[in-house]
Amino acid sequence: MDLTLPDWVADWARDAPKLITPAPGPKSKEIIDKDRKYVSHAYDRLFQFTMKKASGASVMDADGNVYLDFSAGISVVNAGWSNPKVVEAIKEQAENLIHSLANDAYFDKEAEFAELLAKISPGGALTSTFFGNSGAEGVEAAVKLSRYFTKKGEHIVFFGSYHGRVGNALAMASRVKYKVGHGPFPPGFFFTPYPYCYRCWFGQEYPSCNLLCVDFLEKGVLEFGGPSNDVASVFAEPVQGEGGYIVPPKEFMPRLRKMCDERGILLVADEVQSGLGRTGEIWECNSTGIIPDILITGKALGGGIPLGAIVAKASIADVWRPGSHSSTFGGNGISMAAGLAHVNEILDQKLAERARVLGAHALKRLAEIGDKYEIIGDVRGKGLMIGVEIVKSKKTKEPLYVPQMQGIAWRKGLMMITAGMMGNVFRIAPPLVISLEQLDRGIDIFEECTKEMQSKLV
C-alpha cells in the first residue's frame, strides 16, 4: 500500500509542521480579539491561532504557520482537509441547488446517498436512512424512533458516553461538565459501567472478569437498578470516543446484542466518531460481527459540511408515518453532495485499510514510547482512533490533566485534542490520508512533549 500523501495535497501542506512566528501571530491575534468581543464564550478554543486554510493533514493559520493535524477536525475530515472531490461536489451543487426542500420534495442525491449507506451498512441490513444536520440530531432521531417502535420510554446508556449537547442527547452525556447549569434533564435514562479495562469499575481484570460490567447491567441495572421494564433501547459506542477512546473487549457488543434480543430492546450503535473508516473498518460494528437495529453517523459523514443521520432496519424505520419526524435542512443539497463525495472517497481510496496499516504502526510506536515514560499510563485504539492516557504515575494511575501538555504540542506545530472523563487522554486521530512520514513526525513531536511534560513533574 502506498502510504505517501495523495498527489492533490498542496505543496505547503507536505512539510508540516512549519512555524514562522510564535502563535498567536499578529493577524491571528487581531481576529481573536474581535472573536472574544462578539462570539459566545461557550466554545473551548483549544488552539490559540486563527485557521486560514487546510489541505490533507495540515492546517495553516492566518500568519502562515503550518500545523500537523492529529485531530481531523474532531474525526470529520477522514478523507483529508480540502479533498478535491468534496470541494468540486460542493461547487457543482451550489451552482444548481443549495436548499433542496428535502422535507417536502424529492432530491436525487438524497436518494442516491441513502442507497449507498444501505449498501455499506453492517451486513447490508440497515436500509432506511433519515438525514439531519449533526450526530446529536441523529441521536435525537434514534431516541424518537426507538420509542415510537417499541412503545416504551426508557434507555440504557454508559458511563463515559457522549452523544451530543442538546435535549435527550445531553441527558445521555456522562460527563458532569457538559450538564452543569443546564438541568433538569428528561427522565428515563439509566447509566451503567462501560468496559473501561484500564480503570475497571469493579477492580477486575480482563478476561478473568468474564465481563462483569455486562453481568451488572443485565442482573443489576435492568432487574433492580431503576428501569420499569419499559426499556426502548440501549445506546452504545462500539469504541467510546469522548470517554477516552476506549476499546471494549471483543465480546462486549455481541453480549449487548444477545441481551437486547432476549429482552425485546433495540440496540443503537453510535458510530459518529468510530465510523467511516476511522477504526480500520467502514463501521466498527463490522469488526464485532453484530448488526445494530439503528446506527447513528455524523462527523465524517459530511466531509466538513454539517450532516448526521440514522440508518435503521426497514422493519423498524417503516413504522414512522409522514410527519413523525422532520428536519428543515435534513437532506440539504450541499450536504448531500459533499457527504456522497466524501464517503465515496473513503471507499474508493480504501481509507479504512489505510487506517488499519497506519494505526498498527502508530500503536506500536506509541506503546514503545509509553514504556519509556512514567506519565503514559495506557495506549489503546483501533486503526487511527488511538487514545494515550496520561497519568502522574503508572502505579497509582492518578490522572494528569493535560491542557498544559496540549499547549506544548501545538506550539511545536502538532494539533491534538483531548478526551476522557478526567480530561487526561490524547486522541491520535489524524485524517486517514496522512502519510507514514507525517505520522512518524507527529509521534516524534508527541514524544518530545511527553519528555518535556514529565520533566516538569520531577
List keywords for this structure.
single chain; alpha/beta; Aspartate Aminotransferase, domain 1; Aspartate Aminotransferase, domain 2; seven-stranded mixed beta sheet; four-stranded mixed beta sheet; 15 helices; 15 strands; 15% strand
Structure at a glance:
Helix content is 37%, strand content 15%. It is an alpha/beta fold and 458 residues long.
What does this 3D model show about the protein?
The protein is an alpha/beta fold and 458 residues long. The protein has two domains: 11-79 and 350-457, Alpha-Beta Complex (Aspartate Aminotransferase, domain 1); 86-348, Type I PLP-dependent aspartate aminotransferase-like (Major domain) (Aspartate Aminotransferase, domain 2, 3-Layer(aba) Sandwich), CATH 3.40.640.10. 37% of the residues lie in helices and 15% in strands. It has 15 helices and 15 strands. It has helices at residues 26-38, 72-75, 84-96, 108-120, 135-150, 167-171, 176-179, 212-224, 252-263, 284-288, 314-317, 333-348, 351-372, 403-411, 436-457; strands at residues 51-55, 58-61, 66-69, 128-132, 154-158, 189-192, 231-236, 266-270, 294-297, 308-312, 376-382, 385-390, 414-415, 417-419, 425-428. The strands form three sheets. It has a seven-stranded mixed β-sheet, with helices on both faces. Helix 3 (84-96) packs antiparallel against helix 12 (333-348) and helix 14 (403-411) packs across helix 15. The longest helix is centred in the C-terminal third of the chain and has 22 residues, at 351-372. The radius of gyration is 22 Å and the shape is globular. The model has no long low-confidence stretch (mean pLDDT 96).
